[in-house]
Write a structure and sequence with these properties.
By secondary structure, this protein is an alpha/beta fold. It is built from seven helices and seven strands. Helix 5 packs antiparallel against helix 6 and helix 5 crosses helix 7. The longest helix is centred in the last third of the chain and has 22 residues.
């Protein structure tokens, strides 16, 4: 069964009418910073059918920041059980906020996981280039490592660096 996408307005209507269960597949720090009221946290790395909240006859909607991780979560769940009736919030919580929908905000201001990954990879590539030029050409391998990690993440949907960053202390309670 293919993944169905819905927009923020449709999700709002479903939630208001108690027709949907919403699952947030972002990391804890992101969820604690801002979340859609009523969403249940189930980080992407932990997504399994047995851990989904009970939905009864309600629609099951997954979301993340932009809709990419939640699409991956839907794919993962459909591999486990292709009879699941899943919906992915198109554009994630960003689209939800742009549509003027309510969000619980803590004011803590943690960087979203995808931006943390961008910063770490940027530092690694820059450091490899600078050290490769000024110290030893062997340091260019650092830049190559980060490039290979990006290619792997793009081809497989499994971000090794993102998984490591998600386990860092600042991304925990």
């Amino acid at each position: 069964m293919p993944i169905k996408s819905i927009d923020a307005a449709t999700l709002k209507k479903w939630l208001d009418n108690n027709e949907a269960v919403l699952v947030d597949v972002r990391e804890l720090a992101e969820f604690n910073t801002e979340s859609i009221p009523g969403a249940t946290l189930l980080p992407l790395a932990a997504v399994e059918k047995c851990l989904l909240p009970a939905s009864g006859n309600k629609k099951l909607v997954l979301h993340c920041r932009l809709g990419k991780r939640s699409a991956t979560a839907c794919e993962k769940l459909l591999i486990e059980d292709n009879a699941l009736d899943l919906y992915n919030l198109d554009g994630g919580i960003v689209a939800w906020m742009q549509a003027g929908m309510p969000v619980k905000v803590s004011g803590k201001g943690a960087l979203p996981l995808d931006r943390q990954v961008q910063v770490i990879i940027g530092i690694g590539v820059l450091l490899g280039a600078v050290l490769g030029y000024s110290v030893s050409s062997g340091f260019y391998m650092l830049s190559a490592f980060f490039g290979a990690a990006l290619i792997h993440a793009g081809l497989t949907g499994n971000g090794i660096i993102a998984n490591m960053i998600a386990k860092m202390p600042w991304n925990k309670n």
